[in-house]
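Sequence in, structure out.
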Amino acid sequence: MVTVKGAHIPFLSAKSAVSPGVKKPSCCPAGEEKFSRMLEETITDNKLNFSAHAQQRLKSRSITLGAEEMGKLEQAVDKAAARGCRSSLLLYRDMAFVAGVPTRTIITALDGESMKEHVFTNIDSAVVIE
């Protein structure tokens, strides 16, 4: 028994929960292979997502991103993720992006004109991209 705030709670360790002589179910190799492949694809997929709001801002502000710019944004999000950031301001040339780092999602995008006197809120970090 474990006592938590005065209440006695029965507790079984994972070790004691499995009876001796009971065979553990074997995992289906095909299912395990499929899961491993899906997990690897998810982990190695470093592509950024763009929220509907960000897509509207890119269009209305005539911001176009090529492969080079996308690569730099992805690297910036990687750096922010490595530092444990959650919401990051990405500054690149005359553009700014706010990214949800754990979901790898660009939340909004601003051009140079839109950044003037703009206050960025709800961010915990900033990455300056060279």
